[in-house]
Amino acid sequence: MNQYHDIEVIINNKRYTLSGYESEEYLHKIASYINGKHTEFRNKDAYKFLDSDLKNILMQINIADDYYKMKDRLQELEKEDEQKSNEIFDLKHELVAAQEKLSSTQKEVEELKKELYETQRKMVRLETERNDIRR
To answer: Which CATH class is domain 1-49?
Structure first.
């Protein structure tokens, strides 16, 4: 089981203790994300004049928006991954079929070479016989 961590972080200029089984690095990353959101909102002029309840709800809405956009993006990427996997499967299937056709064609070429060789031998033999008959 993972180790339980308690770490102190500063979010929006206030000290908090974050706890969880996630790594300390991960918990710091979460605090950093929240601080980034606070900074983003603080830099907007209209945000400065809102009461704290409205600021909090806007922050929550914004974080939820980020979450759902990332979730949608993940689904898109999973669909793309599945499509690419299907394309790879189809290409592998085509490759196997092409390799089988190549192998079959190579066997046919070998058989035709043998047939040509036998025909050439027969022609030489027949020409030799014809020359012998003429003499």
So the answer is: alpha beta
